[in-house]
Amino acid sequence: MPAITVDDVLVLPRLPRLDESTNFRPVRRLTTAPSGFEGEGFPVRRAFAGVPLSELDPFIHLDQMGEVDYAPGEPKGTPWHPHRGFETVTYMIDGIMDHQDSNGGGGTITNGDTQWMTAGSGLLHIEAPPEHLVVSGGLFHGTQLWVNLPRAAKMNPPRYQEIRGKESALLTTPDGGALIRVIAGEVAGHRGPGSTFTPITIAHVTIQPGAQVDIPWQPGFNALAYVLSGRGTVGTDRRPLQIGQLAVHGPGDALRFTADERQDSHTPALDLYLMGGQPIQEPVAHYGPFVMNTRDELIQAFEDFQAGRLGVVPAQRMPHTDGQGERP
Which segments constitute the Pirin C-terminal domain (predicted)? Predict the structure, then answer.
């Protein structure tokens, strides 16, 4: 799991040392993600399955894509599909993903990069491995997070942020036992490059075997920790957690994680995807690729898509796609 690494974490800024009087957040809920398939058939874990939206707010959905080592000819993506009313945050850990939309946007993200797409008023979009990866096969691993937009921003014009892995704020723990990559928001005063409508924090944390991480967390944010790989514990009561599990935290000022001393050879460290945000506390009407506030707005989104008002598939398409639109 390369993402972004450094040769010597001891040269990085360090988290403050927290004492036991700190109000560490308890674990409210621990769930295990069911497996499924997305798009043209690539494997995913549905990380938020079974968690009430009220505990996720402002987040809606999280998929862990892979980890899978494709043989030649096997890599898959998604067909053309619409979005409206929210943001997609695609984080590539291993592999390469191309993306293109009906507004003329597009690009490529690879190890450690994030593609942040504000769908806003709506567009058509496709994500697929590049042609050379389809031919050769290779490792593919990433996440896609859906972040809700407040009512006032749902119909904003679409926009992109391409966040390269090297732009993330990097820091470590007082003993150098972990690497924290801040993608958006801030951790202990260290701010990531992602620009958000709703105040949120997203970070990828790699914890070496036996190491402990105490992370200050905004008291007004919720706190979600998804295990990308490895095994460890969460909280001061050391609740066990492992790959594919989500820890939903209660109120407090800090999070605590510890990596097990013994890890699998394939996953030598505990890797966490941390998410937190200020709840929007607005009604949510979510169906398929649309996240709105009311049922009437959902119906309007479907009608606009079917009438072509969310855009059309461009004539110049990525070479390994057939350009066929998807009906949700």
Answer: 203-310
